[in-house]
Amino acid sequence: MSAGPMYDEPLAPSGMGREFINKERAPLSSYVGASQELAAFPGGGGKEGMAPTPWDPFCFSELYKVSANNPDVAWLRESELKHGRMAMLAITGVMVQSTGFHLPGNAEVSFANSDWVSAPTTLPPVVWGQVLAFVAIAEGQTSEGLFDLWLGDTSKREPGNLGWGSGLLSKDKKAADKMRLKELKNGRLAMLAIMGVAANHFIPGALPGCIYS
User: Fold this and answer.
1) Is residue 54 classed exposed, middle or buried when 0-12, 13-18 and 19+ CB atoms within 10 A define those classes?
2) What is the largest CA-CA distance in the chain?
3) What is the pLDDT of residues 16-44, one digit of tens each?
4) Report for 10-24, 58-72, 196-210: range of highest mean pLDDT
5) What is each CA distance from 35 to 53, 123, 184, in whole angstroms?
6) CA dist 59 to 62, 148, 183, 210, Å?
């Protein structure tokens, strides 16, 4: 725990968030994928002879100690997984579409545009309406307990668990955590990848060797 009056004596008065700040939370180290391998770098470490603490140089995992208006690690993990999944879909879409492989379409709708930047603008409103309707239904059906994560309450929802495919995970916790870690790392890599492609588009040559722009 970081030292200092802001954490030891929360700024929030009683009845206005102090009870949430002082509530016991799951530490960052309890989450799969907490970067203990980076503990040797500034922001990581731990006392000699003890297990290394996760790498968190900006102390994002301790923001909740300042104010109940700040998110718990559970919310941050949910956000990281969601952004990672979207990034994996995005970079896969860029790679596949650039090969010329696309949905067949019809006389009204064409998916032939292989440029990931301009392709979305060629789709009619009715197609975007279907996409947005699917997103709204999916988000609505999986929203139970979502906002409880902000305060670290995971009793209704495990961060990132939408209930889709969880039955395919191994019943062995160690094996299941390995699969969760793979998803997390692939999502992190995908976020870097799609940001690199975007940078290469808006700043040509920003990512040397990148064949996507």
Assistant:
1) buried
2) 68
3) 566 666 677 888 878 887 765 555 555 55
4) 196-210
5) 9, 41, 11
6) 5, 21, 24, 33
> Averaged over 128-148, what is the pLDDT?
88
Residues in contact with 77: Cβ distance below 8 Å, sequence separation at least 6, in sequence order: 31, 159, 160
Instruction: Indicate if the alpha-carbon torsion angle 161, 80, 35, 27 is positive or negative.
Output: negative
Q: For 181-190, give one letter per residue: b (16+ CB within 10 A) or e.
A: eebbeebbeb
Tokens standing for residue 149: 């994560």
Q: Which phi and psi angles does 53 have, rounded to 5°?
A: -85, 150
Six-digit token string for 98: 């650039």
**C-beta of residue 8 within 8 angstroms of C-beta of residue 14:** no
Helices (H), the chain: 5-8, 18-21, 73-98, 125-141, 173-202
190 within 8 A of 169, measured Cβ to Cβ: no
pTM, rounded to two decimals: 0.78
97 vs 155: CA distance, rounded Å? 41
More reliable by pLDDT, 9 or 61: 61
